Backbone:
């Protein structure tokens, strides 16, 4: 499979072909700072301005807005307003606004939705005005052959309960992005909680509790996870036929995917009849912006709401127009589903997210393959200990960062050979002792890491697969499984790249599908790491800017 999977996710660049079609690359970072790795978090072609300038809007945004670049280029010619983007996840971006970290640095924010931001009074007060620009509901794209097997006809009468029943019965395996990282995943989580609880108004904690049994059944069908909607789409296209039968994502993404998917992987877009949660992409002016930016905002939003521009937006992005009378793109349904209620407070929203991470979703199994060769001595090893240590913290209300309850975590320290491997399972909610004891034990192992020796990278990766094989044989469970590799150098001992490829080719299908997420650090050989990511179906991350941030970002893929 791909990202993180079972065995048996807060312009100029789009990912190659499929992700271009998907038009929604929602890679997310742990802070509103551009990643130093363009492939992880692409930035606008021009340098981001550090100070406000007339005719320029500095915008913190969800990176799915890259597909709007042709329209924004035309807008600049028509209005003189230039938009300069930096990227973040929606929930991370909302936190940045609420905490004041956007003050003076950005003139506006442009997330898929402001609903989470509005739950915090401090964040709400930072927004001077907002203008929805386009709409796309969360939907489920079901492979046409699977749709027929389920007996759902053309999909126009399907409910969330039917989807949940099919998932619980083992008839529907689907992929969904991490709700803590991607707004499409968060919107899905809210939609199913609202639909299952029958909430008629703002979602409450009692509603969530009422919906919990059905939520647990629904998420048994989630076989693929990711911190990025775009990469989720790419992984679906690469997955073994029949392994993943559906994707939960924005309607626009699913429709765009069909432009490039082969016939046997085409998706029928199902919008459950009991309701959806939609993204309305509000361009939002921050109260800290200046008069020149107020004027630029007015000119740009007036242009974007023109009927002909709305039609152009719809044709470019396959999202729905918000201006009355504007024609939607061909193939877009003309009807709308009712909007399901959103959580009424920030506490309910964060509680729902924490419940998903620790109780509702399929648990994960991760082996961290950690380079502790001599070159890591000193500041580099200290940075590694700090970054991994943060994953054992208990101050993470949304489950965005720390190791989750029920998660199996293995640490493999290597240099010229594997030094040691230590494994832990974080207890489930309500266990005694609680998660804190095991998290402290993981941190103790992290802090015991010592640097010495060479770099036998490929031998160590082979050992990681053997660790997973043994754990699976002992537990006979079904988990999201992945390997995270952190190195600051080039493999110079033991097995070669060619040896590893032969080893990987010989693995059983389930093990072959386990992704490796390499982290480039220091003088690591990028060609080796990219090759490892490619052969395993993983993704390369750059830890040169913030090792803390990269480890947190990878959490969305585990």
Residues:
């Amino acid at each position: 499979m791909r990202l993180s999977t079972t065995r048996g996710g807060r312009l100029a660049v789009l990912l190659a072909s499929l992700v271009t079609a998907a038009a929604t690359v929602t890679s997310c970072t742990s802070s509103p700072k551009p990643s130093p790795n363009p492939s992880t978090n692409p930035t606008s072609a021009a340098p981001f301005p550090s100070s406000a300038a007339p005719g320029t809007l500095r915008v913190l945004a969800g990176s799915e807005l890259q597909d709007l670049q042709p329209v924004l280029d035309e807008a600049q010619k028509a209005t003189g307003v230039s938009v300069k983007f930096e990227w973040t996840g929606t929930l991370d971006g909302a936190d940045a606004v609420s905490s004041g970290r956007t003050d003076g640095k950005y003139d506006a924010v442009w997330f898929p939705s402001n609903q989470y931001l509005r739950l915090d009074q401090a964040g709400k007060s930072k927004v001077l005005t907002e203008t929805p620009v386009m709409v796309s509901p969360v939907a489920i794209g079901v492979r046409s052959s699977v749709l027929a097997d389920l007996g759902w006809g053309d999909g126009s009468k399907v409910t969330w309960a039917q989807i949940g029943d099919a998932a619980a019965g083992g008839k529907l395996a689907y992929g969904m992005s991490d709700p803590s990282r991607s707004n499409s995943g968060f919107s899905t989580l809210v939609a199913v909680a609202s639909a299952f609880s029958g909430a008629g108004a703002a979602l409450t904690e009692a509603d969530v509790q009422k919906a919990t049994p059905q939520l647990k059944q629904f998420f048994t069908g989630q076989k693929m996870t990711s911190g990025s909607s775009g990469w989720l789409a790419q992984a679906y296209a690469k997955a073994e036929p029949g392994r993943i039968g559906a994707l939960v994502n924005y309607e626009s993404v699913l429709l765009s995917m069909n432009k490039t998917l082969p016939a046997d992987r085409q998706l029928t877009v199902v919008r459950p009849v009991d309701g959806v949660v939609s993204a309305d992409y509000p361009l939002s002016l921050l109260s800290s912006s200046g008069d020149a930016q107020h004027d630029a905002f007015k000119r740009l939003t007036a242009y974007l709401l023109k009927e002909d521009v709305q039609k152009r937006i719809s044709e470019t992005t396959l999202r729905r127009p918000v201006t009355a009378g504007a024609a939607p793109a061909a193939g877009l349904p003309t009807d709308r589903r009712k909007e399901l209620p959103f959580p009424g407070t920030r506490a309910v929203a964060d509680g729902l997210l924490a419940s998903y991470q620790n109780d509702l979703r399929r648990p994960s199994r991760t082996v961290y393959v950690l380079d502790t060769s001599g070159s890591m001595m000193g500041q580099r090893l200290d940075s590694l200990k700090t970054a991994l240590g943060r994953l054992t913290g208990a101050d993470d209300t949304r489950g965005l960062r720390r190791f989750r309850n029920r998660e199996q975590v293995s640490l493999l320290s290597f240099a010229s050979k594997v030094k040691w491997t230590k494994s832990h399972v974080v207890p489930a909610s309500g266990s005694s002792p609680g998660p804190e004891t095991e998290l402290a034990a993981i941190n103790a192992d992290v802090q015991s890491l010592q640097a010495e020796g060479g770099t036998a990278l490929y031998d160590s990766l082979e050992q990681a697969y053997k660790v997973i094989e043994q754990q699976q044989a002992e537990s006979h469970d079904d988990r999201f499984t992945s390997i995270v590799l952190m190195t600051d150098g080039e493999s110079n001992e033991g097995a070669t790249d060619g040896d590893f490829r032969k080893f990987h080719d010989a693995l059983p299908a389930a093990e072959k599908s386990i992704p490796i997420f390499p982290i480039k650090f220091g003088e690591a050989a990028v060609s080796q790491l990219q090759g490892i990511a490619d052969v395993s179906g993983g993704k390369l991350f750059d830890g040169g800017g913030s090792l803390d941030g990269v480890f947190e970002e990878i959490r969305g893929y585990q």
